[in-house]
Hints:
The chain is an alpha+beta fold. It is about 40% helix and about 25% strand. It has 17 helices and 23 strands. The strands form 7 sheets. A 7-stranded mixed sheet has the order 3-9-10-16-13-12-11. It has a 5-stranded mixed sheet with strand order 20-19-21-22-23, sandwiched between helices. α2 (about 40-60) packs across α13 and α7 packs antiparallel against α8 (about 165-175). The radius of gyration is 26 Å and the shape is globular. The structure holds adenosine-5'-triphosphate.
Amino acid sequence: MAKSEDILKKIISHAKEYGFVFPSSEIYDGLSAVYDYGQYGVELKNNIKDYWWRSMVQHHENIVGIDSAIFMHPTIWKASGHVDAFNDPMIDNKDSKKRYRADVLIEDQIVKIEGKIKKEVDKARKRFGDSFDEEKYLSENPRVLGYNEKIEGIKNRLYPAMDGNDLEAIRQLIIDLDIADPVSGSKNWTDVRQFNLMFSTRIGSLSETSNEIFLRPETAQGIFVNFLNVQKTARMKIPFGIAQIGKAFRNEIVARQFIFRMREFEQMEMQFFVRPGEELKWFEYWKEERMKWHLSMGIPAGKYRFHDHDKLAHYANAASDIEFDFPFGFKELEGIHSRTDFDLAAHEQYSGKKLQYFDPELNESYVPFVVETSLGLDRTFLSVLSHAYTEEKLEDGSERVVMHFSPVLAPIKATILPLIKKDGLPEKALQIFDTLKFDYMCQYDEKDSIGRRYRRQDAIGTPYCITVDHQTQEDNTVTIRERDSMKQDRIGIDKIRTVIDERLKTDP
Ligand code: ATP
């Protein structure tokens, strides 16, 4: 088994064992690509939401939030292009009976070739040492040039085929590239078919025929259709943003990699409305801002990278993803898109209502352009969880699993532990718990030996364990154990707050 798969498996089982993420409907053998968040998972998720909301809404005088409904008028999805174009091309392997996204199979080939280029560069760097000029090597080495030509060749066939909805050409590319089913190795493929990713349901009485509605596949449209409501009632001046956190639903063909690709998930989106012509400036601004936000969570910069899109969606004139180095490699975490006036103009057309902004400085009305930042909450959760997960060998030869969460995201900030379950220590510990519980998410734990209790807190990433012992009753001091260093200090009860606050200072 590949090492990365091994790590992902460990993270999944840790997430289940410690109440972060459970498979949905588990007692009925689960429901594919649907997950439930447990007692610590929901705290971590709420902390991530709060961290995002504070940085986007609270810290910007020109961004406000909304919470729009999941059900919306079905024509919205016609206007947005989702009814006609929110499709993925799928292909089945006749032998393994597995279904794949045809474009993903092809893009995986490109990633493989890029991996070969990287290997060549690494080899050359070792060979040439300090004198190695990577740029020159990339532009001159015949093997690298050959690989790049191959990648270009694939892209030049894939993108026009995707744009032109030429399913036969996509299939032919899979055949020509000799792509095999990653599970069975078989090359016995069906035709490529289009598959719409929206879930539909019915509203009202069953006898009506035209009552089909969709579960929203993105939260963005709820913002667009409320654009004027918000602009007018909050008296917003362009440039301004509307943010929203909420559920989205996609009937994903390939549902794998744990909570990375789910059929029900959450998005944290912000649509920023700007003057036409200024969108690319704002696009660059938000690219940078969003990267800064990710880095502020304490995860090293090497774990993130931008991926600028060669192939743009029908609504965009620039697009870039922030990718994260998940246990299964670099994959999209957040999309930053310059969506032009596509959405607002389409809603004007379909609804027959004007969605224009009067710009007092220019003394004219126009349909604003939009730059969107669209982040998956569950993917952020997975990035934080997978980075935090660490197996450590301790000096005494024992091992511990510790979640090195940034304290601001940690589900529990402090746990209060009586050393033993008698002599008035539990009562004293509960008193401390009662004074801290209004400001921090705390726990009280008296079960098992103190060592096992510390391990349990390490496994859920609690930054501080506060232990009440016999000395506490004499001088009102406790020991405070720090998660990462495992160092224990003796401090007065009145100092606990200062220590915790110091660690929580990180701000988005
Ligand atoms: P992908 O190419 O991985 O399918 P996408 O480009 O379709 O993603 P967007 O439509 O840009 O994704 O959605 C914005 C964000 O929502 C993504 O960056 C991702 O973090 C999140 N997201 C999208 N689909 C899913 C899903 N099925 N499960 C979890 N998160 C998702």
